[in-house]
Amino acid sequence: MKYIKKRLTIDKVVIDDIAKKFGTPTYCYSYTQLKKNINNFKKNFKSFSPLICFAIKSNTNLNLIREIQKFGLGADVVSMGELMMALKAGINPKKIVFSGVGKTSKEIDYAIDKKILLINAESKSEIKEIDRIARLKKKKVQIGIRLNPNTDAKTLSQISTGKKENKFGINEKTFLELISFCQNSKNINLECLSVHIGSQILDHKPYEKMLNVLDKIIDKTKHKFKFIDLGGGMGISYNDNSKKLNYQKYNSAIKKFLKKHPSKIIFEPGRSIVGDVGFLISRIIYIKENEKKDFIILDAAMNDLMRPALYGANHKTLPSIKRNQISKKIYEFVGPICESTDKFVSLKKFQKLKEKEIIVMCDVGAYGMSLSSNYNLRPKPVELLIKGSNIRIIKKRQKHTDLI
Predict the structure, then answer these.
(1) Fold of 31-274
(2) Residue 110: which of 144, 74, 81 has the closest Cα?
(3) Three-class SS state of 62
(4) 347 and 317 Cβ atoms separated by less than 8 Å
(5) Contact, 203 vs 154, CB < 8 A?
(6) Going by DSSP bridges, is the β-strand pair 51-55/264-267 parallel, antiparallel, or unpaired?
(7) Separation in Å, CA 382 to CA 22, 28, 260
(8) Is 377:404 a contact under the CB 8 Å cutoff?
């Protein structure tokens, strides 16, 4: 995304032209950036050729997942719906990993029937349920066990998953007990040790600590794991000042680990694949003046982009047309929903804005539309894929008649 003659563009398309043709609010995805991200991810870890399973929860657009599938990626799913979506997008079942703490009997049954690569179990009760269903079906099921490595990823508490107080995975003592259970089962084949310590990680050190925990526990188990699933969590730069994850150092740590424990590495990236691919285009409805700040009331709201209200997340916010006039007051960008949390960001020294102008929120490709809702009975935005100068609708805008 860049300014050409003071007009903001995605690839070769002018933002204002998109707003004029398709209306607002509108989600746009850059195919160029998507391709770049996937190739960059592969390149950084090519020395051991991991199985890359895209985290479907980060973006559930069927047509976007189809594009991702064309690069040979698999899928990490956390529900039956996501598994169905991955299969419909053409992803090979033998590249699908089913994660999550609360898989129902129906979901386990469906996953076994679809012959996916792995069901990553997260409790003793779940493993017993997989064993029961597999026995009824007279099948042997490949599973992984998710270990909670008690590793702090040093990110937001709301997206931490690897500490002992988090609901995910099992502790070392239970892990060692369950290996014996699996080895004695005729219907379970324990193939994978799985971990995932959190999201939006920008430092390689928590990953190194995680690998050290895995090294020690594998030595204790004396079990040969075919797969080591390292999860995802690789962060992106949401603003110009944030640091970037050093993939080379993470790669080196994994290579060192693999010398001692040769196995196939699985990654489950979501945000690092689609985060900076997406943009939310919105129009200013009104500018509501106040003493200390002006409220920039947009036609996009927290139902369209939940991350700021949910996590206090910041998204780079840009005007579609660049001008030199700077506002003397703080601008608080808000939506029209009847909640005080329906706000996106407060900015000082932003360029002076006018009503009806277009605003763009960046880096919304991950957990933007997938967390969206119809709160206040608001229809969901149209989704567009931009490929060079070509624009394709990959999901139609909802209508009120679809909801009522």
Answers:
(1) TIM Barrel (3.20.20)
(2) 81
(3) helix
(4) yes
(5) yes
(6) parallel
(7) 8, 8, 49
(8) yes
pLDDT tens profile 69-118: 999 999 999 999 999 999 999 999 999 999 999 999 999 999 999 999 99
Q: Which residues pair with 4 in a beta bridge?
A: 7
Average pLDDT over residues 17-27: 98
Write the pLDDT tens digit of every residue in 143-196: 999 998 876 545 545 444 444 555 678 888 889 899 989 999 999 999 999 998
Task: Summarize the confidence of residues 53-63 as an average pLDDT.
Answer: 98
CB atoms within 10 A of CB 41: 20
pLDDT in tens, 238-266: 887 778 899 999 999 999 999 999 999 99
Q: Where are the extended beta strands (E) located within 56-199?
A: 74-77, 96-98, 118-121, 141-146, 188-194
What single letter denotes the amino acid at residue 253? A
Give the tokens for residue 268: 């489950």
Q: Which residue has the tokens 């770049």?
A: 36
Residue 325 pairs in a beta bridge with none
| pLDDT value, residue 158 | 47
Measure the CA–CA gap between 146 and 179, rounded to whole angstroms. Answer: 12
| Distance from C-alpha of 168 to C-alpha of 122, rounded to nearest angstrom | 7
Q: Dihedral angle at the C-alpha atoms of 258, 260, 261, 264, nearest 10 degrees?
A: 20
Half-sphere exposure of 346 (CA within 13 A, CB side): 8
In the chain, residues under CATH classification 2.40.37.10 are: 2-29+275-403
Q: Is the peptide bond before 25 cis (omega within 30 degrees of 0)?
A: yes
CATH 3.20.20.10 residue ranges of the chain are 31-274
Domain 2-29+275-403, CATH homologous superfamily name and number: Lyase, Ornithine Decarboxylase; Chain A, domain 1 (2.40.37.10)
Q: What is the DSSP letter of 380?
A: P
The set of catalytic residues is 338
pTM recorded for the entire structure: 0.93
Q: Which two tokens stand for residue 259?
A: 């010398």
